[in-house]
């Protein structure tokens, strides 16, 4: 995915499900979620172990299916081996997101191909915060 495509996603897609959200301020997912909220994105944290609690004032959901509105981007902060199950969860949604975004060092070729085959754009091995800062500016 080239810079223009990534920039377009970040400029036009504003509802994000952040899978693997953590209440721990030292975790990358926490910092990225904070940044996205500060830059006008609506972020739904997803973490079964934290469901019903809040992270940065946002209610945490146990699964993507529990989120009450259409998701534009599923932003994944989980190990690569968790990606196939996440893609299956994405494909089972009544309304599928436009983008599957796999954070730095996260990839799974087979699962990514499955998402692309379903018409979902896939961004791999990139950080939403870093790309926003680089392409749009803080």
UniProtKB/TrEMBL annotation:
Gene3D superfamilies: NAD(P)-binding Rossmann-like Domain. It comes from Pseudochrobactrum kiredjianiae. This is CoA-binding protein. InterPro entries: CoA-bd (IPR003781), NAD(P)-bd_dom_sf (IPR036291). The lineage of its organism: Bacteria, Pseudomonadati, Pseudomonadota, Alphaproteobacteria, Hyphomicrobiales. Residues 10-106 form the CoA-binding domain.
């Amino acid at each position: 995915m080239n810079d223009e495509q990534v920039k377009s996603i970040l400029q036009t897609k504003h509802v994000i499900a952040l899978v693997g959200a953590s209440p721990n301020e030292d975790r990358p997912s926490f910092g990225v979620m904070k940044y996205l909220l500060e830059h006008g994105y609506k972020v739904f944290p997803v973490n079964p172990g934290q469901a019903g609690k809040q992270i940065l004032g946002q209610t945490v959901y146990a699964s993507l299916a529990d989120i009450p509105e259409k998701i534009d981007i599923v932003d994944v902060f989980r190990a690569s081996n968790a990606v196939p199950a996440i893609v299956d969860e994405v494909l089972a949604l009544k309304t599928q997101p436009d983008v599957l975004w796999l954070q730095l060092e996260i990839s799974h070729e087979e699962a990514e191909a499955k998402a692309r085959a379903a018409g979902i754009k896939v961004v791999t091995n990139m950080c939403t915060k870093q790309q926003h800062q680089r392409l749009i500016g803080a």
